[in-house]
Amino acid sequence: CNVSSIEYINTFACQIITILINHKDKPKRSDKTLQAIQRVGQAVNLAVGRFVTVGEAIANENRELKEEMSIACIEAKRAGEIIAQLTDVANLDHPESDGRITIFTDKTGVVKAARLLLSSVTKVLVLADRIVIKQIIASRNKVLATMEQLEKVSSFQEFVQIFSQFGNEMVEFAHLTGDRQNDLKDEKKKARMAAARAVLEKCTMMLLTASKTCLRHPDCESARLNKEGVFHRMRSALEQVIEIVTDSRPSGENAMAPISIYSSIKEFKNKVEGLRENLYFLSKENLSTMLELILEHTEDFTDSAYTSHEHRERILELSKQAKMELEQLVSVWMQAQSQKTKDVTEDLEVAILKTCQCMNELKRELHHAATSLTADLLRYHADHVVLKALKMTGVEGNLEAVAEYSCKLSEQKEQLVETCRLLRHVSGTEPLEITCIHAEDTFQVTGPQIISAAETLTLHPSSKIAKENLDVFCEAWESQLSDMSLLLREIHDVFEGRRGEKRAYLSLPRPGKHNANLKALKPVKLDTEEQAKLGKLGLELNLLTSDVESETEKWEDQENEIVRHGQSISSMAHSIYLFTRGEGLLKATQDLFHQVEVIYTEKIMIKDDDKPLLLLEIDKLIPVCQQLQITAKTTVQGKNATFTKVRFKTFFRTDDLKTNTLKGTKQVQKERWESTGNTDRQSQVNIKIVK
Fold first, then answer.
1. Torsion of CA 16, 17, 22, 28, to 10 degrees
2. Contact (CB, 8 A) for 448 and 222
3. What does the similarity note say (predicted)?
4. d(CA 653, CA 634)
5. Where is average pLDDT lowest: 337-341, 478-482, 668-672?
6. Could you report the per-residue pLDDT of 588-613, keeping only the tens digit for each?
7. CA 447, CA 164: separation in Å to the nearest integer?
8. Could you tell me which of 164, 172, 236 has the C-alpha nearest to residue 199?
9. CA-to-CA distance for 147 and 236, rounded, in angstroms?
10. CA dist., res. 108 & res. 128, Å (int)
11. C-alpha separations of 510 from 507, 513, 568, 591 in Å
């Protein structure tokens, strides 16, 4: 349905009732006021007309709800017409004197029409919502049915045909659930939906390679377990989506979510500070029980093998201090109650402040312990040494080495799972708690799947399909580590009080900064092929974003201009990736196009005085890199020649640096050749350098 029409209708109906309730009997009415009233009435009627047109179209497509929807549309249309008639007062000199019924003479009629409008619009929305839920359930059922066929296939040809159908059904399901996720108002449900859709997105490729591996090696037990794990996880994610959409839970499932320390500390502080208003609204036993629960949760930190000794000692010290502060608070509190004082005494105020301060220090220490542990762990595993070793030893068919590195991966998995649990305690918001739980589940499941895929490759070292399967699962692991970096930053932002602030590079184009050079774009609807292509590009963009983030984190000076511009462009690119998943701040295709143009304009601007110097240095760099390339490929003989070649190779210690330098230099040179004769040649070169 047209969102702007709905908002206009609802806003008008609510405001008109409020205005009429506060309306004076004989207010002053200018011609300007009368014309404004008539314009508003006509606008509401037009909005209702558009809304009803959509409702009638939905009714025609869904016969089981056609009668109810048609009645609601008729009521809405009638209410819109009544409001238009009652507000048609602009051409009347004296609205009360000519006998016509208007907004001024029949307040009751206007209120009834506004209420009828609200109720009918709400009824249409509820019916439309039921239809959307039905569409999602039907789409889920089609996906499940096709998955059952995929599990039973025995030939590659049959598998390819069925998987093609499965891909189309998954695209349809992704669009329906993406729209639903954007419509959800509950942030907790939205986070759960995002987690489930992320699982389905990543598992689709895993299902492809795992099934192919199982078909190629039907007698391999590890391949079979690998495939079954993917199917099980996808089914669980599909069920979670339906639970969110229908707002239901499986029978017997505990509705209580895990309690985090942050939420417990917040509730405890609210109770303590509430003593200022009322000394008798709770008992000392309640406060003691709440503190005991908080300190019990801190044992997750103190008992963890990965918490540093310094953090453990500090947490224990603050826990002991919190008990002492509460005892002092209870003593002063009981004394104030015995004296039957109504106002808070000075001693009680001091005790309240000390208790809250101690809890804040405990909260800060827990945050520091969890985030520092996560940062260290992500930094330590950034090179993915274990994954690379598993791939290499798997191709070699070395069973002993694969078993050894599998144990190391299991240890890494346990570290990451434990870290996710600690992060959940300090996440600060329910959506972030859910994201932590999703990360924990992902590491818990993906670790064993990587090991089973590696075992399959070890048993069949020459199998390209088995190698591809292991690569896909390793990429999922690496992707989750990148997501952990983003999660860590969001948790830190919440702790620092930056929750809800939109950084400049995350926002849409702002008036006066970017909009001046942006062309007005017409809404564009992409077909299925274009949408699939856009999704693939989005994934590639997300991988590049992760690379940029990991590089910028290595800089000591985070305020450096290059770092800030890099982070700005990276974050805008990430928002484009989220758009391809139906998430984030970009809501429409036009927003996407605007964001792309903003990225183009957010390049590092080089001062005019520096341009000649930069071009001069580029001229020096090109022949040096060409000489390096020629020397590296030339076969040498003799002591001096060998020394020269080694010296060049040592200068560029890694193949990546050499390759990137040559690529960049060639690209700049190409741009300069292509831009010969262009008056803005230097600007083009500068843009290409940034790219």
1. 30
2. no
3. Belongs to the vinculin/alpha-catenin family.
4. 18
5. 668-672
6. 666 677 767 666 655 544 445 555 66
7. 28
8. 236
9. 13
10. 30
11. 8, 6, 14, 12
Could you tell me the end-to-end alpha-carbon distance of the chain, in angstroms, rounded to an integer? 41
Q: Are 117 and 48 in contact (CB under 8 A)?
A: yes
Token pair of 392, please?
């290499």
pLDDT tier at 407, thresholds 50, 70, 90: very high
Q: pLDDT tens across 515-549, in order?
A: 333 333 344 555 556 666 666 676 666 667 666 66
Q: How confident is the model at residue 368, as a pLDDT?
A: 94
Dist CA 50 CA 524 (whole Å)? 21
In which residue are the tokens 């580590």 written?
481
Burial track 336-372 (b if 16+ CB lie within 10 A, e otherwise): beeeeeeebeeebeebbebbbebbeebbebbbebbbe
Question: By C-alpha distance, which of 328, 330, 319, 331 is closest to 265?
Answer: 319
Residue 396's H or E segment, with its range, is helix 385-396
Q: What are the tokens at 667?
A: 């690209």
Q: How many helices (H) and strands (E) does the chain have?
A: 22, 0
Distances (CA, A) of 238 to 34, 139, 166, 414, 432: 55, 10, 14, 26, 21
pTM metric for this prediction: 0.66
Contact present, 238 and 200 (Cβ < 8 Å): yes
| Other CB atoms within 10 A of residue 422 CB | 23
| pLDDT bucket at 17, cuts 50 / 70 / 90 | low
Residue 485 DSSP label? H
The region of weakest confidence among 130-134, 237-241, 673-677 is: 673-677
CB atoms within 10 A of CB 488: 17
Write the pLDDT tens digit of every residue in 35-72: 777 777 788 788 888 888 888 888 888 888 888 888 88
**Tokens 């009435």, located at residue:** 41
pLDDT recorded at residue 540: 64
Q: Which two tokens stand for residue 367?
A: 């945050």
CB 10 within 8 A of CB 118: yes
Phi, psi dihedral angles at 415 (to 5 degrees): -60, -45
Distances (CA, A) of 345 to 68, 282, 355, 357, 474: 63, 18, 16, 18, 62
Q: Is 19 left (phi over 0), alpha (psi -120 to 50) or beta?
A: alpha
* SS3 of 121-176: HHHHHHHHHHHHHHHHHHHHHHHHHHHHHHHHCCCHHHHHHHHHHHHHHHHHHHHH
**pLDDT for 533:** 67
- pLDDT at residue number 45: 82
Tokens of 356: 């809250």
Alpha helices, DSSP H, located in 217-345: 221-246, 261-273, 284-302, 309-338
Q: Using the 8-state DSSP alphabet, how is residue 523 labeled?
A: -
Please say whether the beta carbons of 13 and 117 come within 8 A: yes
What percent of the chain lies above the pLDDT cut of 90? 37
Q: How far apart are CA 158 and CA 45, in angstroms?
A: 55
Whole-angstrom CA distances from 39 to 89, 106, 144 are: 10, 19, 52
* Number of C-beta neighbours around residue 150 at 10 A: 18
Q: What is the mean pLDDT of residues 633-640?
A: 57
Of the listed ranges 99-103, 160-164, 365-369, 481-485, the one predicted with least confidence:
99-103
Tokens 């599990």 belong to residue: 151
